[in-house]
Amino acid sequence: MNSLSSRLLISVSVLLLLFFGATIAVLDRAFTEAGEQARRDILDGHLVALLAAAEPDESGELVMPDRLREPRFERIGSGLYAELRNLEGKVVWRSRSALGLEVPVGTVPELGNHLFGREFFEDGTPLLTLSLAVDWELDDGNSKSYVFKVAESLDGFNAQIAGFRKQLFGWFAAVAFTMLLAFSMLLRGLLKPLRQIETEITEIEEGDRVSLSSKFPTELTGVARNMNLLIDSERARSDRYRYTLDNLAHSLKTPLAAMRALLNSRHDEGFDERFDEQIERMDEIVRYQLRKPAASVADNLVLAPVPVEKEVARLIDGLRKVYRDKDPEFEVRIEKGMQFRGDTGDFLELAGNLLDNACKWCERKVRISVVPSVGARAIASGMVLTVADDGPGIPQDAADALLQRGMRLDESTPGHGIGLAVVKDIARSYGGRLSIKTSDLGGAEIMVSIPPVTTTKG
Fold first, then answer.
1. Closest C-alpha among 286, 429, 292, 443 to residue 354
2. Are 96 and 75 in contact (CB under 8 A)?
3. Dist CA 105 CA 251 (whole Å)
């Protein structure tokens, strides 16, 4: 009973059973009453014919002619019987059809009254009877009372009723079956959109479809729309956590490399302090990445300003350890007192990824520049962060591809291929943008522009 179609079919079947049952009962009663009334009218006609045929003889007794107009009275066992009795119950006359049978006396009606009744022969045969008591006035002025009675066997009538009922049940069963079959086919068509939703959800689970289609009846449009919203929400949440794990792994790469480099000089003075600094950096990265999925962009407006020069110095110090074999030269151009209004982790992701890429691809030189962006009535400082190197550079036709997660120009170079994608996502969350062009050093120059937050006129 878990099927909606089965429930509907059973419900309709029960309703049809009740409706057709009531209809059959009404029709059966109407047919039975009409048949009985017709037979009463026929018996009344036979009784009138008997009254018309009766004549008194010379002795003053009523007598019936030898042959009556109704032939069934003359045929033995015809099922139609008649008799004439006096008030004492003595049979004066009886039809030939009742030969060998004893018509029940039954209740004697009052003079001048008709009385219908249901009586039985001794063998149990049911009868419909009509009696009439009359006071017959004779030619000499005297009168005598008689009871005329006609009776008809109900065997034929009952057989006719049984046949009618059998036919009635047969026709109604055929009609009910046809209606259920039609309703089943109609129901199959009406429930087709639900089966379509089920099929499309299965396709989504198997990865063959990304969302439900929009071709549904009005009643199911809202269901499909809300289901698509739920699917999109769950997919976005899954992507967000997957990106967070990717970002976490990518962010930990630099401090881990620095720690590995420090281990080679663990006996040098100041090792513990530098090693603890990298551990603290990793701790900051983990805390930043774990809170990132739940953080809103608006939260950036209420965070404490980030000292740009100090954080860049920390990043460069760590990268010197990671790339000490290459020993890149860093050129730093940061406006004094420059601050970034936003999350510290966001700034470290921006600057750290760009500097790490520059160190990885440079020949010798890496340049970082951070200046305020131009904006009127700024309530939170914007910035323009530029990182350039003297490496091979980035072809213009490959710039857009590098902004996609997992895309790398050189598969032989270690990396995750998500650094620039992370930078682009963070810049976009602050309303900024990222651009790639050729540096005057000969390599790539990547610029991140973060606009200031301005007041609005109310």
1. 443
2. yes
3. 116
Same domain, 300 and 449: yes
- Look at residue 55 and tell me if it is in a domain: yes
Q: In sequence order, what are the beta bridge partners of 380?
A: 453
Number of domains forming the structure of the chain = 2
**What pLDDT does residue 171 have?**
92
Single out the residue in 144, 161, 178 at which a domain terminates. 161
Q: pTM for the whole thing?
A: 0.47
Q: Note whether residue 310 is domain-resident.
A: yes
| Cβ contacts of 221 within 8 Å, gap of 6 or more | 214
Q: Looking at mean pLDDT, say which of 43-52, 59-68, 98-107 comes out highest.
A: 43-52
C-alpha–C-alpha distance, residues 75 and 71, integer Å: 7
Q: In this model, does residue 414 exceed pLDDT 90?
A: no
Give the separation between CA 147 and CA 87, rounded to whole angstroms: 7
Nearest alpha-carbon partner for 87 in 143, 151, 140, 150: 143
pLDDT in tens, 249-291: 666 666 776 676 666 666 666 666 667 766 776 766 676 666 6
Cα angle for residues 266, 267, 273 (degrees, 5° grid):
60
Nearest Cα residue to 438 out of 394, 402, 403, 401: 394
Let me know if 224 is exposed, middle or buried by CB neighbors in 10 A (0-12, 13-18, 19+). buried
Structural domain boundaries, residue 36: 4-161
* Alpha-carbon distances, residue 159 vs 35, 119, 153, 165, 171 (angstroms): 12, 18, 11, 10, 18
Average pLDDT over residues 307-329: 88
Q: CA 262, CA 257: separation in Å to the nearest integer?
A: 9
- Give pLDDT tens digits for 361-370: 899 999 999 9
Which of 140, 161, 182 is the last residue before a domain boundary?
161
Please provide the average confidence, as pLDDT, over all residues in the chain: 81
What CA–CA distance (Å, rounded) separates 149 from 393? 127
Query: Quick check: is 198 in a domain?
Result: no
In a domain, 179, yes or no: no
